[in-house]
Amino acid sequence: MDTGTRLAGKVAIVTGGASGIGAETARVFAGQGATVVLCDVNDALGQSIAEEIGAKSGGAAEYRSLQVTNEDQWAALVGAVEEAHGRIDILTNIAGISGRDPAQNIQTTLTAGGLLEDQSLEKWNQIMEVNATGTFLGTRAAIAPMRRAGGGSIVNISSICGIIGSFANAAYHASKGAVRIFSKAAAIQYAPDKIRVNSIHPGFVDTPMTQPGHANPEIAQIRMDATPLGRFGTPRDIAMGCTYLASDEAAWITGSELVIDGGMTAN
């Protein structure tokens, strides 16, 4: 694990921290000197990531269970973190779902979700609640402690699907588009408090969420052909973007979109 001081002295909350982009972001943040509180609903895996960070890097990391759609749990989390560590400087809202059947090991259709006419209200609400409402609740909960700390950085994971459309999975697109515009509105509202809010827009990244799609050679080839740099992204590619936006190096950046997609949306 790389070590440095880009986030030295900062306290960071990372949601979705048990796997994929969230776990790698927690690793990089700790390696750069932050005290990291990683959160998820997968308690066993989340605890193992926190223990791994401590064992491999000596970084300060701890795990706390969090359902991002639960308002009371958010209040309890930020209260506990501020009490334990004295401040909250960084929040990365990474937890998210695609809407795919979790039992599906290989994706059989070109996208993880069906056509709009086949979308159930229940599934629509679930995707919106986790991806969009979870981001709202986390951002809202972090405002007061960040104001008390003299400012902070909130990084919200959207997607290229929050910028461009496709022929399916409308609920996922809608949720990620909501994150994009929500981040801009929050950035404007809280700029006077020196609280920066930005969104990151990953392309096709190899994570547990995308694994069923990439396990289908046809789908993997279509996605690869659409990516000019000729490879899928890694969780680290996105984690390094989170690190930049969380750091003081990005002190004059708020309300922005960082697209990390191997050139896909440049087409």
What does this structure look like?
With 267 residues, the protein is α/β, with parallel strands linked by helices. Helix content is 44%, strand content 15%. The chain has a single domain, classed as 3-Layer(aba) Sandwich (Rossmann fold). It has helices at residues 20-31, 43-57, 71-85, 121-149, 170-190, 211-214, 217-225, 235-246, and strands at residues 11-15, 35-40, 60-65, 90-93, 152-157, 195-202, 257-260. A seven-stranded parallel β-sheet has the order 3-2-1-4-5-6-7, with helices on both faces. α5 (170-190) links the parallel β5 (152-157) and β6 (195-202). α3 runs parallel beside α4 (121-149). The radius of gyration is 18 Å and the shape is globular. The protein starts with 10 loop residues before the first strand and ends in a 7-residue tail after the last strand. The model has no long low-confidence stretch (mean pLDDT 93).
